Amino acid sequence: MGTAEVAGQRTDVETWWRDAVVYQLYIRSFADGNGDGIGDIAGIRARLGHLRDLGVDAVWINPWYPSPMADGGYDVADYRAVEPMFGTGDEAAALVDEAHALGLRVILDIVPNHSSDQHAWFREALAAAPGSPERGRYHFRPGRGPGGDEPPNDWRSVFGGPAWSRVTDDGRPGEWYLHLFDAAQPDFNWSDPRVQEEFESILRFWFDRGVDGFRIDVAHGLVKSDGLPDVGHDEQSMLGPVDRGNHPHWDRDGVHDIFRAWRRVADSYAEPRVFVGEAWVDSPERLARYLRSDELHTAFNFDFLRAPWDAPSLRRAIDHSLETVAAVGAAATWVLSNHDVVRHVSRLGRPATNGAGHSLTDLAPAVAFDRELGRRRARAAALLMFALPGGAYVYQGDELGLWEVEDLPDEVLQDPTWSRSGHTDRGRDGCRVPLPWSGTTPPFGFSPAGAHAVPWLPQPADFAAVTVEAQMDDPESMLSLYRAALTLRHEHPALGDGPFTWLPSEPGVLAFSRGAGFACVVNLSDGPAQLPVGGSVLLGSGTDAGDGMLPPDAAVWLAV
Predict the structure, then answer these.
(1) Mapping DSSP to helix (H, G, I), strand (E, B) and coil, where does residue 417 land?
(2) Rg of the chain over CA atoms, in angstroms?
């Protein structure tokens, strides 16, 4: 896949990211190698064969840096080291080498919007005086009202509550500092050139160690409006489109200068490194600005993730995405789940009532989750995603058909959303439950045999039916479908990056070709649908399409 090597053109090695399938690995929940109940680098190394056999091209690893874990590692205390709970720097280097030997590229997470409150810079800021250079690397401000007792503005934390916390100066209440997320995650001040210089140095540190790229956390949030003006309403959200133009802290134009500088760093390597941005913006056109030729290589397509399970909505999301990335010569990316949203099996198995159902609070509480419906639709959604032009992301457990664990006991919840919302929003722990690998009882092979520690989040008993071991030799399993689809994606010349054409179809059906010889048909209607094109079945979800009809919530790949 990718472009052919032609004089004067970039090679497929240089553009591998345009159609790569990337596996998102949430390190604490992937595999436990040392038996303490927490996933680690040793566990990843032991399971690299699973990723190779699955057929993915790269692995994106959620933060593995030293962290107090106030937000699952997204509160970084040291960007140039490895959290001891996960392993050592030598183990990380071995992982990169072993992944490369298996043909897998490695993408790390970088968290540039905020650090941990245990980061050396923030500790220096707390020890320094108001107005000092040390405080200039973050957003410190005097409060409003009598005695400065009110926050500097009305901004709210994504996790709930005010986006400001007050510090003590010389034993008295002092300035306030900004944290768009948890209070343990103070926001960097990107107008300070030392912040830019530091992160360019961090990029080089990991690139020099063989890392192939970075996923950029909260890429749309780094730059804040001069003067930090009020937003004008109470609630803030990251996991949704920006609610207006010229928002004071989301999707500011100044972020693009930062990413142009980062791109120069990435392009300075013999094999250029790559970036994928997490940017929640208000339109595909705004997202395309991040993908101009001198900025980020790719960005997550959240419009596709948020689209309801109906043909018009998905077609609009696909059309708009392809049109806007084409305008800047970028490649599309497609994703169904990640560590911040409800697993798509659970979204597709229950109607959404608020937004697109990316959080538990969006889902219809009075409607029981239909697991079989969710898994059936998830199979069709996977074939749809893998057949679209561009790249795709698989969140760990997607290949097993895992669902959201919605009944975790209150006492085990660790997402800061749970505490900051006053125990009204259960947060994201339900999509982060450790993977089931083998056996019939917890921990399902997550930890090595003989280990006595329990996983950091409990696994439900019915994970027994969906372990890797249980699905391995079942040709009808979700795992077998993913393996077959990714094998065909690598082998068929029409798949990956390339042309795309809608085919005529009846209402409720999506049908398209990917150039000569390949077509994909997905039936999102309530009844059987006639295949709009003839051909031999390459791979199907829910049917062999032998009678020329496709059942509801099914998909098929055809050689035409």
Answers:
(1) helix
(2) 23
Contact 305, 339 (CB under 8 A): no
Hey, what are 369's tokens?
Answer: 């989750």
Q: Provide the pairing of β-strand 501-502 with 509-513.
A: antiparallel
- pTM of the full structure: 0.93
Sign of the torsion formed by the C-alpha atoms of 307, 61, 497 and 472? negative
CA distance 337 to 479: 16
pLDDT digits (tens, 9 = 90+) for 155-173: 999 988 899 999 999 889 9
Residue 206's alpha-carbon distances to 49, 80, 107, in angstroms, are 24, 8, 10
3-state secondary structure 118-168: CCHHHHHHHHCCCCCCCHHHECEECCECHHHCECCCCCECCCCCECEEEEE
SS3 465: helix
Strand partners, 138: 188
DSSP 72-117: TT-S-S-TTS--TTT--HHHHHHHHHHHHHTT-EEEEEE--SB--T
Q: Which of 259, 241, 345, 337 is nearest to 298 (CA)?
A: 259
Q: What are the C-alpha distances in Å from 339 to residues 28, 180, 292, 398? A: 11, 19, 27, 11
Question: Do residues 444 and 459 touch, judged by C-beta distance below 8 A?
Answer: yes
Q: pLDDT tens digits, residue range 244-292?
A: 668 999 999 999 999 999 999 999 999 889 999 999 888 888 889 999 9
